[in-house]
Amino acid sequence: MSILQYSLIATAFIIVELAVLARIMLRPNRDPTSRLAWLFVVGVFPLLGIFAYLLLGEVNIGRRRVARREAVFARLQNLQAEENETIVPERHSGIFRLGQSISRFQPVGGNTARLLADSNATIDEMVADIDAAMQHVHLLFYIWLPDNNGCKVIEALKRAAARGVTCRAMVDDLGSRTLIRSDHWQAMRRAGVHLASGLPVGNLLLRAFMGRIDLRNHRKIVVIDGRITYCGSQNCTDPEFLVKANYAPWVDAMMRFEGPIVRQNQLLFASDWMSGIDEDLEDLLRGSPVSPISDAVPAQVIATGPTARFSAMSQMFESLMYAAQRELVISTPYYVPNESLQNALCTTARRGVDTKIILPARNDSRVVGAASRSYYADLLAAGVEIHEYVGGLLHTKSVTLDGEITLIGSANMDRRSFNLNYENNILLCDGVLTAAMRQRQQDYIDRSTPVTARMVASWSIPLRLWHNSVATLGPLL
What we know:
Blueprint: H1 3-26, H2 32-44, H3 46-56, H4 63-81, H5 93-103, E1 108-115, H6 119-131, E2 136-141, H7 148-162, E3 166-172, H8 177-180, H9 183-190, E4 194-198, H10 204-210, E5 221-224, E6 228-232, E7 250-251, E8 254-258, H11 261-276, H12 282-285, E9 297-304, H13 312-323, E10 327-331, E11 335-336, H14 339-350, E12 354-360, H15 366-373, H16 376-382, E13 385-389, E14 393-394, E15 398-401, E16 405-409, E17 413-414, H17 415-420, E18 423-429, H18 431-446, E19 448-451, H19 453-457, H20 461-472
Parallel strand pairs: 2-3, 3-4, 7-14, 10-12, 11-17, 12-13
Antiparallel strand pairs: 1-8, 1-9, 2-5, 5-6, 6-8, 9-18, 10-15, 13-19, 15-16, 16-18
């Protein structure tokens, strides 16, 4: 290669590097820490850094997908406006206003709900509701495995389709690839169940140029006849979760709702379905609104994702923390906060609020587990109680505050749920339901080991280096 050719290649590479650096600086919705981290990586490791940024540096599901989702949401927006707003206590109204600003769902009253006993009981109730369905069944899961519980739901859908019930089932293309590749998937299709895989991966090489492959649909939605819905952390699997059996059992929490809140989950399912499938569900959604059952439970769906407002889920978590006056209890399997959420949690404890967070003692992701522990010292110094659950992989995502407010759903307290995954949660205001959720959290605490400042201080220097090094990579996501 001549000196001239070498110079031209070097010049072209420098131009590309400068263009990527400019892109990092100009890209909207990047916090300064993230920009600085990417500038460092691209500047110090140009070739690897540019490649990494193109793969992981931007939250992009592809222009066509974004345009389609926006078009579908615009069509469904008027249907959301038909709901009648309910009144929540003034002391909590700001939280619900924030929720409405995120996904435009208003708080609705007249709902009833139950916290279900455990994962197997949840599947059994779902199957019973599917067997009783008369019109339609809509399911969306991030992970659906062809194990015992997964097959129970498969058979229930096949039975429902055989008696003329319209069944639609959607799964994430990556999270449920085992089911999609199994004979059960085709058996459901042959039985008349309408199937779809969300955010298809396709060709791995081409997919990288169309949008990030790791942006996933993490939602868990079940809607039956437009009158029953489920919300929580549970995938359609056995608690033994055979793909990661070493961490079993998976410990989840789900609530079963009836009332006007069902319509919001129905609209959310429809927006995902119509974004990927050429089927118009507007006529179904224009049916009669669900009649209020009682005035007991105001509730609201909080839906977030990479095409929603940046860090909307983080804002919701932080607002709940700042709203707490007496007690705040959190359970989450993955705690990798941004700076503002970490500060909010520490500030809540420093205000004198009894603040507790429950995490799994053994995390199925060594990287996430290490990153989580890098935040322990500051949390403990602020007065946050940390409990590590030892009865399996605690997978429940829940927040309770002041014995009145509960948030339950699919969102973790990590950067994936803040910016990369499509998530669904329900925010509710009710003393009885919150007491039930708080008791479940207490059950987790009773099966946990409290983390003390002395324990954290005793960690070896190599271990602390590992925790902090992993956490430092968080802003690159």
